[in-house]
Amino acid sequence: MNLRNCAYYDDFEKPKIFYPQIVLNHSFGYAETNFMCNDKGFLMVSEKINLKYLLGLLNSSTLKFLIQQNAVKLGENGFEYRKIFIENTPIPKATSEEQEKLAMMVTRSGHSKLICILVSRVSKVF
Predict the structure, then answer these.
(1) Closest-CA residue to 49 (of 39, 41, 58)
(2) By C-alpha distance, which of 92, 60, 65 is closest to 79?
(3) Contact yes or no for 85/54 (Cβ under 8 A)
(4) Which of 14, 43, 116, 125 is the least buried, fewest Cβ under 10 Å from its Cβ?
(5) Highest mean pLDDT range out of 1-5, 12-16, 67-71, 91-95?
(6) Per the domain annotation, does 1 fall within a domain?
(7) d(C-alpha 15, C-alpha 17), whole Å
């Protein structure tokens, strides 16, 4: 049995943005390597756009609003983020320098959140 029949298997090893199909909270994540998901999650890889720049845009309130205008509403708080809705979301063009600036802000923001989580966990121990 060949488990490598998946045409995009190598994408799991690349830097990627990931998100679930069914969401209560609008949130896109980022992983450098070795992240896999089931059939209820999606991955985005690209060599044409800075993925952390794209992550910053996707997690912005503006793109949240645009995506949720097209997404299927599930109950009071949930949404179904179908691949087609995300692919058709307009992404502003930016120079590589502008992309890098936002990417650095996303990286710093992520580190700040991680530091806060770790500090709160350490504080609970003492």
Answers:
(1) 58
(2) 65
(3) no
(4) 125
(5) 67-71
(6) no
(7) 7
Q: How much is the average pLDDT of 16-39?
A: 84
Distance CA 18, CA 33 (A): 12
CA dihedral 28, 40, 66, 48 (to 10 degrees): 60
Q: Could you list the residue range(s) of the whole structural domain that residue 35 is in?
A: 9-125
Closest CA to 109 of 13, 35, 45, 28: 28
Give the global pTM.
0.77
How many Å apart are CA 118 and CA 113, to the nearest integer?
9
CA distance 79 to 21: 8
Does some domain include residue 65?
yes
Identity of the amino acid at 112: S
Element (H, E) at 115: helix 96-125
Alpha-carbon distance of 38 to 105, in angstroms, equals 30
| Structural domain contains residue 40 | yes
Please give the pLDDT value at position 126: 40
Strand ordering across the sheet containing 72-74 = 22-23, 78-80, 72-74
| Number of domains forming the structure of the chain | 1
